[in-house]
Amino acid sequence: MHQTRQKESTPYFVIITAGALFLLFFSYYVFTAWHLPRGAGPDSGAHYDIAKFIYENGRLAVVPEDVDRLKLTPYGSTRALRPPLSYLVSAGVAGALGESGSSTFINLRFGSGLLCALAVVLSFIGLWLLFERYWLALAGSLLFGLLPQLAFIASYTNDDSGAIFSATALVFAMILVLRKGLCWHSAIVFGLATGLVLLSKFTAWLLLPLAAGFLLPYLWRCRRFGMNYLAAVTVAVVVGGGWWILFNMYHYGIDDPVLSQVSTRLSEQRAVYQDAGNRGYVSRGVGLSELIVDNYKNFIGETFKATVGHLDWLRIRLGWPQYALYALIFGIGFLYLPIRLGRQWVGTSSHYDPQEAGGTTWFYGVLFLMTVFQIVMYIQFNLYHDVQVQGKYLLPAFFPVLILFSAALAEAGQGMAGRIRDSDSALKIVFGALCFAIIIGSHVHGLRAYVVPYYFQEPYVFRMSDFHYLDLTNLKFVKASQDVRLRAGPEGLTAESLGVDPRIRLKDKLCQRLEVNSLVHVVLRAEKKGDLKIYVDEGQGFSEASAQGRRYAPGENHLIIPMGFSRCRAIRLDPASEAGTVVIERVGLASLHIANRP
Q: Highest-confidence range of 158-167, 428-437, 470-479, by mean pLDDT?
């Protein structure tokens, strides 16, 4: 097993570039976080709730003591029972900023940007340590940081940013062990990274078994100091994030270190929907063969799109430049190791690292298995737990794929180097500039063609009044209802459909708050996708011609519905188009004065 490499200092230009990359990407993520609308991002409200609790109280929430101060999902769960790395960082960044011109809501978003910017830096340094090719490492870090889905995750409060950062840190620690050998320095970094993974998200935990397997041969070869290094790793794990396990055992019992039991009890007590754990494809009669072999509802294609950049509750699709670029990366990354092993077997391989004695191949094998295992567990989750075709769950394994892709480029570049004479250096410069232009141009094209038009379309100049929000803690605003059971409380209005056409007739005096042109803001949580419609009676009764509606997705939704009419006599709200339960958290009315843009 390859153990050590001649110790060399990191060139100053690599350190300077790492600092510049951090400033560049953190600034970019702060910019996008500042401009991304509220409500953008899956479960953004639930994530924000926990980060804000830590920010305001300076501690983690404890259930059930703090449960009434938390925002529960319709399934009775809370992000307070998840590993808190992202929320701790978000609260810390907001606390460091203090009271500023921006709101706490925006300040808390910057934590995700910080974590993702640090992950970009680790990817750059890790690729440099592996290949010692500056432009290859720089291109790889740009591909990492400009992945549309990752840039989106870096722009709002969520726990996927912590999973991406910690998984990248773990693979970086493996690179240190590979290149520097197992020593006190690399053992401590490996342990800290492992602890950060424990503190981040369960999607990153999937990398831990194979990372431990990677370390075992090095511990075995260091028999004299192996136990000492193992002790250093263990202590660093506790410092890096294992303390959260001890925290849980202290508060919830030694038999519940990852809070599975307390989560189950909370769901049983507070859930609006009781079937949260059995809503996968299998419950719909779709098995593994239909899902993968038959590609049920384009599961493979939709997963790929969601991994690259099918953004914001999967509502924003990108175009072929983005998908083609990353399809090339994923394809080459997956094929590189099998081709490498095949070439070694037939004796035609030219290794990139001449000092290698099996360690690099072992490392690449572990990375490949990490990626495969991540995909297998993602498929199993969709089959047996819940249908969530969201590629963000695969992103903790993106850095391993990127390394395998970079290894393929490094080996190809090694073969081409002898064919290109020194006089052809201009050709190298042109080729390199073209690669960087493709990477950056693809990202800019995605922003201009898809993201900006979705969020910032402004065909008109308009003036809008402030939203007047209804008091949903009681039913005083309701005049009548049909085929729906209503319950008002602190969480809002819970509407349980009793038929296929639930209707809520609002008090007629609410018409006084609507102008000829108005906006209605509705915040709701839903178990499944559906349609919300608002009808205005202009004197001839309610009709589809007078209705305006919006399609909503499972989970939390922020809907803006424009209304236009000659006069308002009565208002009706239809919360769903089929049986189910919808929790309406807020309903706001605002007048709108519109003029054509000059």
A: 158-167
DSSP string, 396-452: GGHHHHHHHHHHHHHHHHHHHHTTS-GGGHHHHHHHHHHHHHHHHHHHHHHIIIIIH
How many CB atoms within 10 Å of residue 443? 24
> Are β-strands 468-469 and 547-552 bridged in parallel, bridged antiparallel, or unpaired?
unpaired
Please determine, for residue 31, whether its predicted confidence score (pLDDT) is greater than 50: yes
Task: Measure the CA–CA gap between 67 and 138, rounded to whole angstroms.
Answer: 46
| Dihedral angle over CA of 453, 456, 461, 462, nearest 10 | 130
- Residue 95 or residue 537, greater confidence: 95
155 contact partners, CB below 8 Å, separation of at least 6 = 29, 32, 33, 36, 40, 41, 109, 112, 113
Q: Is 129 helix (H, G, I), strand (E, B) or coil?
A: helix
Asked if pLDDT for residue 74 goes beyond 80, the answer is: no
How high does pLDDT run on average in the chain? 87
| Token digits of residue 402 | 């990127």
356: tokens are 């290698």
**pLDDT over 60 at 382, yes or no:** yes
The answer, yes or no, to whether residue 81 has pLDDT greater than 90, is yes
Both structure tokens of 47: 């994530």
| Alpha helices, H only, 182-319 | 184-198, 202-205, 208-221, 226-237, 243-252, 260-270, 288, 299-308
Q: What are phi and psi of 128, to 5 degrees?
A: -65, -45
Q: Is 458 helix (H, G, I), strand (E, B) or coil?
A: coil
pLDDT for 223: 73
Sign (positive or negative) of CA dihedral 263, 269, 271, 275: positive
pLDDT band at residue 163 using 50, 70 and 90 as cut-offs: very high
| DSSP track, 522-569 | EEEEESS-EEEEEEEESSS---GGGEEEEEE-SEEEEEEEEEE-S--S
User: Length of the chain, please?
Assistant: 598
